[in-house]
Amino acid sequence: MAAASFGSANAPGRILGWDLLRGCCAYAIISYHLMAWQKVADIHTIGFYGVYLFFVLSGASLVLNYHEQFRTGFSLPVWLRFLFVRYMRLLPLFAVLVAISLLWKIKTGGATPALLIKALLNLSFTFGLFDPALSSMVVGGWSLGIEFVFYLMFPLFVWLLGSSATNWRRWSVFAALIALQFYWIATTIALDALSLKSLSAYHQVPAFSAYFFGGCIIGWFYLKKRPTTVITGWLCTAGILLGGGLMVGLNNVDDPASVLTGWRGAALTTLCFALVWWAGLANFSPRFSAWPTFMGDVTYGVYLIHPVLYFGLAFAVAPKLGWLDVAAGPSPTALALGTAIVLMTSLLAYISEKYFEQPIRRWSVRRHRAAR
User: Fold this and answer.
1) Distance between CA atoms of residues 176 and 150, nearest Å
2) What is the DSSP string of 119-137?
3) Fewest Cβ atoms nearer than 10 Å: which of 13, 139, 150, 225?
């Protein structure tokens, strides 16, 4: 069994517990957005930490799948092939949504050089270096820009991991990144967590490096020192749900910044790493492997598609039909719309993954292997 297939019953190269956790994060984020946009509730913890878990999971998964390519040192051809594969993983669906956003902005405000430059920055993912929260043309897309910056830095992260279990460099860097993370929070978002200026200043690469590198450490231990403890899929699911419940319980509606600072911030950050470690221990039987596989497959689409659907239906379609007044707050119609958004997003995400993204991804992997 390949190292990356540990914890999966029948899907080489995948850890189904991580797929399940990744999917749960996507649905937590869609729930957070729909509740906030429809003025039902503001559960900031699942909104913030649902995305942070993506960074931890990404670091862990990349180390499992690509560590050996950079283990002996930096190679420009290997790095470029790695970037090509990762770029083609993110681009297809994102490009479609950027195109939709671009057409809408041109229709409402006209084509300008600044808008076209912004679109190019998005399509190249270099917007992660240029104020990603303001530069992204897709809601939630800021995280993809930052993610791609981590791809650029991945050979460095592999070098920092070292080779021994007690390597001082790995743990020193992780401690420094944790300190940087809390410093960044304190100097950007802590005083005013919801202002555009604070959010823009906060959503930069340094604020999330500890999550990604912490995930790399988890992936390294799974790769080098395979855990002997294995839990059932049901126990994995229960642990993820319990972790989600703890996140909801630690929410503070009156002070969103408090969930990123102090004891809440420390507890929730620790919980992120614990959930990834826990989910990686799961061994799903073939009979029950379809569910985590589905959750992993639709994650990316659910994360990106739901804002486009919501704003299109809630602000362009429903008001014209007299169905919904978004400003009116919660209502049975709003609940029905939210439910429809979740179902439609799930269906579109599955179709996109199976018939659009997956074929392109397989092509890019074949090109990657042929170029070796």
Assistant:
1) 17
2) HHHHHHTGGGGS-HHHH-S
3) 225
